[in-house]
Design a protein that fits this description.
Two copies of one chain form a homodimer.
Chain A (H helix, E strand, L loop, with lengths): L8 H15 L6 H8 L3 H8 L2 H20 L1 H5 L3 H18 L7 H9 L4 H27 L9 H20 L4 H13 L3
Helix pairs in contact in A: 1-2, 1-4, 6-8, 6-9, 6-10, 7-8, 8-9, 9-10
The structure holds a DNA duplex (30 and 30 nucleotides).
DNA sequence: CAAACTTTGGAACGAGTGTTCTATAATTCA
DNA sequence: TGAATTATAGAACACTCGTTCCAAAGTTTG
């Protein structure tokens, strides 16, 4: 019965995500979103609610589409140590390859909003809690496989890797050069020995 | 001849710094600054120029007053390894002690503005380049003193420590609990072995 | 075809933004 | 004391912000 939508929700979220990712929440205006998504203001408010609600949708979209991909290898590669190494190497490579240095939306948003916005804080907290668990699982595999010493504290190491992952994303957003990022990740991975 | 200023420039910068530190550049309004510094709008513009100029002054102020203090031990403690350890332990302790989790203004600002503001990007870049050199100097001392293996790559390790330092600041701004921060820093320091 | 219903385009809103202006107050030097 | 000079207070500015409203357009079902 109703008039059908003229836009694809997924691609609108993609576009909105890229703006928030690049500029951050506060610096992104509704006008920016209208311009970049091609979507009309009224349609935006009708479909997604206000700016904050759209942002939370985008955060979820990012989590499912980008983060999931970033951690796919970490989950799927059977060799635990190789999984961790590939995750960091790929992250570092991507980080200094992209022309616009954007880092990771989840890290960026946590930094920008967490201290004053409990909702975003909770989402970011949960996301990295999950990352920590994923690292822990890979570490356990590696220990079972004998590529990491069983004397290591898995939880502490997982926290270290999670923090370091965010550190790499941070450095790449700040525009770190390839050499620095390489040294950084090499030393992170050497900490597994 | 002129009417003397009714405010102390240093304490105005202190107050302005705390707002920017807590809320970030974009989310801080001129009204916030006026309210918190007690300084009149006109006086603010006359003395510091526009918002961006004030922010750059604040960044410099932070660098001299806060950063310098944070890295004082790293420079001054003769025992290189102890200097590094104390720097990280103190940073982690401060990071989860403060009621309001603010992190490090230089890290925050680099994250928020670097991709779109060359000025801030350059200031942050220089600041952490200096930090890297300070870590490198401490590492060299430690190697000379025999507390760190001379087979280590000093530059790579310095870059790792600089990235990790920012990672700790990031985590503490995101509200990481003490246990996580502790595990994180312990593992960072263990990488020196 | 016509009724029902939703999206669309674009104007409009009030509030808040960063910034500037003007008049007044305060101090010092002649 | 009076002229010169600067800071202060607060109104005012133009603009952008996020948000809402309304009429017109479009599609589907009866």
């Amino acid at each position: 019965m109703p008039r059908p939508r003229a836009f694809d929700e997924e691609s609108v979220l993609d576009n909105a995500m890229n703006i928030f990712w690049s500029k951050g929440f506060e610096a992104t205006s509704i006008q920016d979103l209208v311009d970049e998504t091609g979507l009309n203001r009224a349609s935006m408010y009708a479909s997604f609610g206000d700016k904050k609600a759209l942002f939370l949708r985008v955060l979820d979209h990012y989590s499912q589409k980008i983060s999931a991909q970033r951690f796919a290898d970490l989950r799927n590669i059977e060799d635990g140590r190789a999984a961790i190494e590939k995750t960091f190497r790929d992250t570092a490579k991507t980080g200094c390859a992209e022309g616009r240095h954007k880092g990771c939306l989840m890290v960026n948003s946590g930094m920008e909003l967490a201290p004053h916005d409990p909702e975003t804080a909770a989402i970011a907290h949960q996301a990295f809690r999950r990352a920590e668990d994923t690292f822990a699982a890979a570490l356990k595999r590696a220990i079972d496989q004998g590529t990491i010493s069983k004397t290591k504290n898995v939880r502490a190491l997982a926290r270290f890797l999670t923090g370091s992952f965010q550190g790499v994303q941070l450095m790449s957003r700040r525009g770190a050069d390839q050499e620095t990022l390489q040294d950084y990740t090499d030393t992170i991975l050497a900490a597994l020995d």
